[in-house]
Amino acid sequence: MVTSSGNVRPLWEPSEELQQQANVTQYMQWLATEKGLHFHSRAELWAWSVTKIEDFWASIWEYFHIQASHPYTAVLAERKMPGATWFPGAELNFAEHIFRNATTERPALLFRSERHALVEVSWEELSQKVGAIASALRAAGIERGDRVVAYMPNIPETLIAFLACASIGAIWSSCSPDFGTSSVIDRFKQIEPKVLFAVDGYQYGGKTFDRRAIVAELQQALPTVQKTVLFPYLLGEVEPIPESLQRTVTWSDMLKNPASLRFEQVPFDHPLWVLYSSGTTGLPKAIVQGHGGILIEHLKSLALDFNIKPNDRFFWFTTTGWMMWNLLLSCLLVGGVMLLYDGSPAYPDSGALWKFAQDTHMTFFGTSAAYIATCMKAGIEPGSTYDLSALRGLGSTGSPLPPEGFQWIYEHVRHDIWLASVSGGTDVCAAFVGGCVLLPVHLGELQCRALGAKVDAFDEQGQPLIDEVGELVITEPMPSMPLFFWNDPNGERYQESYFNMYPGIWRHGDWIKITPRGSAIIYGRSDSTINRMGIRMGSSEIYRVVEGLPEVLDSLMVGVEQPGGKYYMPLFVVLRENVQLDDELKAKIKARLRNNVSPHHVPDEIIAIPDVPRTLSGKKLEVPIKKLFMGVPVEKAVSRGALGNPQSLQFFVEFVNKIPH
């Protein structure tokens, strides 16, 4: 990846006025006045935040006036990973902190979809509906610790259901309805939910997708579900509930009995939600994060890292199956207005989201690097076509934003916009490296490491690197790190996922370079997780679907970040004897992946191979094959002596050499 170096002039620098008015500046002034701590730069503040971590997070608690019905007895019981226990003794509720910002001065959220014109939802309406849904859940016997899941798109009703769930101390989890059946079941079945919220269907790209049959499949596959709440998003209330759906009520049924909001007080580390990430083997990891950890991390992130202020209109183009939906809703914690969009970003044309930005007077536009690449290819000119005068910040995440993406934003969106290229993880529902309005933006670089995130680049021996590519590691605990994985009673899978390479050190699975100026460059995944359009999927999920076909004996998929924001995702298959990889079989494989995994994980190419390279212990050689595609010489990518079938490498060496560079 070509990036800036030396003293190349920044693409953007903050004005003196912006620096003085920044939230992080006000926080530093408070530290000076109240704590006698004087920091002369963002770099000094970061260094303090990751060395005096107890003092830093205690200051965040105090600065943001976190409300707890019981006080904490310590900030951090023991500084270790895994197993850090934050703010023991404290009891609070995440949803209660959302409603601290209820006001008649601004709406809580704005929403638009392909089927619905722009609407506002007031704080009063939000409060009434959350209260009613929470009361109905209580009446159905749902208590703190019970699981509530949603097969719902990015619409106001999903937010309402989540806040109702959180208010009573139940545990939330969601999947987008464009996920295939088996992907949803693989996730939800692990946590044994009692309630399922679902839509009857949705629209995307002008096409409608009826999901009632899939909801019936989910009911059959999730025997613990006692009640399904169906929101008639596609067909409307006039359509009766199908006979195939058992123990099902409508959304309007749940709203019939008004009730005031009540907030169950729960321990700081009481589970708030379950997110899903995927390794290379087994089911998706069910990552459990807590009320307090998410609350304190998101207050810090939205206010101090993203600089969101009351009245800001905050948007991220996301689905409910991506952690950015969870971060988006947290803008309500700092008084921001939540902007929701459901549908294709290219319908009715490539300017759909930019028109949404114009019509909502959006102040911060969050998206993925893949979407920016799509805009570049479409040749659109958002800055000259739409009124983006309210827009002051643009965020990009999901995969590395290439230098060409940086240039396009400053040339075709706004020359004076703050660009925050951000990288973090579902695992912590937060950023490790990202932006700060006090710092300049350099081509291809993430401005800085997030406050409270002790990020380093490590070599294989666990030594920190500067200006060299290494493994992204976190060397001090963060409050939003997973409490545990569901159904991982001894913590073995948790340990294996993050701490096996460097004991006591979190290895995230990204390649990173920390520059001498303190900025960072992300080079993509150092593990085999498929990360397309910001939607992460473990290869094992893909293999279960592909290898379930009678024609396929074995398979291997890699996802490769390429220059210009491109992402190449080939699927290699070993076929049964006398089976040909013709167009019909390719179409069959793609359809199966589209329907059972997701549309985002349909491969760019399907190639027949004689054998899948495996280690002596039988593991597929995903990361080394990915390295070959990224230009790493074969002798550096893999040790042939570690392979059970070293001859299988030759096909990939020859295949990669044929690809034009």
From TrEMBL:
Residue ranges of domain Acetyl-coenzyme A synthetase N-terminal in the record: 43-97
Name recorded for this polypeptide: Acetoacetyl-CoA synthetase
UniProt keyword annotations, A-Z: ATP-binding, Ligase, Nucleotide-binding
PROSITE patterns: AMP_BINDING
Domain AMP-dependent synthetase/ligase: 103-477
A GO biological-process term: lipid metabolic process
Sequence ranges assigned to domain AMP-binding enzyme C-terminal in this UniProt record: 545-619
Molecular function terms, GO-annotated: acetoacetate-CoA ligase activity; ATP binding
InterPro entries for the chain: Acac_CoA_synth, ACAS_N, AMP-bd_C, AMP-bd_C_sf, AMP-binding_CS, AMP-dep_synth/lig_dom, ANL_N_sf
Family named by the database record: Belongs to the ATP-dependent AMP-binding enzyme family.
One Pfam assignment: AMP-binding_C
UniProt source species: Reticulibacter mediterranei
NCBIfam families: ac_ac_CoA_syn, PRK03584.1
